[in-house]
Amino acid sequence: MWNDRFAGADYVFGKEPARFLVDHADWLVPGARGLSVADGEGRNAVFMAGRGVETVAMDASENAIAKARALARERGVSVEFHCADIFDWPWEPEAFDLVVAVFIQFLAPPERDAIFAGMVQTLKPGGVLLLHGYTPEQIAHGTGGPRVAENLYTEALLRESFAGLEIVELNAYEREINEGVGHSGMSALIDLVARKPG
User: Fold this and answer.
1) What is the mean pLDDT of residues 118-141?
2) What is the C-alpha separation between 146 and 129, in angstroms, rounded?
3) What pLDDT, on the 0 to 100 scale, is given for residue 186?
4) For residue 2, what pLDDT band results from cuts at 50, 70 and 90?
5) Where does the Methyltransferase domain start and stop, copy by copy (predicted)?
6) How far is it, in rounded angstroms, from Cα 37 to Cα 65?
7) 191 Cβ partners below 8 Å, 6+ apart?
8) CB 77 within 8 Å of CB 57
9) CB 46, CB 28: distance < 8 Å
10) Domains present along the chain, CATH in parentheses
11) Which of 37, 58, 180, 197 supports an S-S bond with 13, CB 3.0-4.6 Å?
């Protein structure tokens, strides 16, 4: 499905990073090693690399990875791209200073729990998770994201899922976004910034 969605020449979610990532760019420390999860067409990984983060990005879609590589060339940055299924990703223990996961809500709850655990595992002690997504209120807006309530995030869900991390920021809000044709219009959003102890 995703490979088909990313088959066209246009960038489905645009070439610019998620506004969430721009708003939290102070966490993108030059020299840090960062992972962008299910990165899509490269907009977030390219932004991370442009801020000086040694960036690894993974996505299951070959078409998305090809466009991501083209975007990295266009912007003159280096990103280590991997075409890999999220369920096969190794989640190397304590490998990254930063894990970024933006709109990865294609995961059903049991799958989501395993991926969340992997993201925590791959963070170094003191490393930071930046997670951004939609709340269930997004379904009424219909401006992007899954139309399956159980795939969406609430503050209570994220507090429980990342109970082992120090919650630095957890904020649900509504805002107009314009991130390609895939995410456009008034949106019900939620941001999590959390630090791994150590």
Assistant:
1) 96
2) 22
3) 87
4) low
5) 35-127
6) 12
7) 20, 23, 24, 131, 132, 169, 170, 171, 173
8) no
9) no
10) 2-195 (3.40.50.150)
11) 180
pTM comes to 0.94
Q: What is the DSSP string of 93-162?
A: TT-EEEEEEES-TT--HHHHHHHHHHHHHHEEEEEEEEEEEE-TTHHHH-SSS-S-GGGS--HHHHHHHT
- Contacts of residue 57, defined as CB under 8 A and 6 or more positions apart, other chains included, come to 35, 36, 39, 42, 44, 45, 68, 79, 80, 81, 82
Structure-token match 């939609």, residue found: 134
Mark 78-113 as b/e (b = at least 16 C-beta within 10 Å): ebebeeeebeebebeeebbbbbbbbbbbbbeeeebe
Q: Which of 146, 35, 126 is nearest to 86 (CA)?
A: 35
Tokens matching residue 82: 């991997």
